[in-house]
Amino acid sequence: MPAVMPYLGEILALVSGLFWAGAIILFKVTGRNVPPLGLNLFKNMLGVALLTLTMLLAGQAVLPRFGAGDYFLILASGALGLGVSDTLYFFSLNALGASPATVVAALYSPFTIILSLTLLGERLSPAQTVGVLLILAAVLIISYHKSEQPLPKKKLWMGIALGVLAQLFTALSIVMIKRRLEALPLLWATNIRVAGGLIFLVPVIAFHPRRRGLILPLLRRSNWKVLVPAAVLGTYLSLLFWLGGMKYTQASIASALNQLNIVFVFLMAVLFLREKHAPLKTLAVVMAAAGAFLASAL
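User: That's the sequence. What structure does it adopt?
Assistant: Structure tokens below.
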């Protein structure tokens, strides 16, 4: 068996968070020209294409002979997590901005823990309890923080509500397949989950009264220079590095390092999107990052 480079898993997990942070910044930029439903459709279509190509190059069967129940469960998880949830997240991202939306997205960890407690019988450690409380406090700070260009209250609370729902659905979509996922190939399961997102999005867009306005921005080549790298970073590269991190180190360590994307997004938003780095917002980001780390700890 070939030797594995020391700390390979930790490096892959950290880079995965960096890729996802870059994708969020690009999603925010392209969200100015592409509606959330169209953006989600594009990233999932490109994700399926790239994942399928990767499976073929790796010599893996794209549609192996698993039971119909396995296919249905993973597709349903994808429809909820990559169809409904990601669309809500893009609406939240457009409303709040990159760094506040990412703080709200830190609720994914406590939601996952709570659902694991209730549905899978797992237990919450003291460190995880502190982590959950830190994340909730960070979200409250973002909710009440007054910047130089404050958002209208309706837009602020709508963005937060959509972000919270997005993370709840994402957590549920993972917990619902946790037990079965342990016995399934991860690359195949991920590809089928992305396909499940498409199964939700295609009919929604097909019957949408403004479907023309959702599709036309995807056909403009001027949008591709941001759309393509955003989808590659967010639906392909970050996924592969995440899988590598989970493979070569402990899951608790990998997930904690993944959650550092909160810090990466904040720094990138300040540098590239010129978002304000007010002291309270900085405090909220630090609290959310610390809370996500503790919430991921065993």
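Residues 8-296 form one domain.
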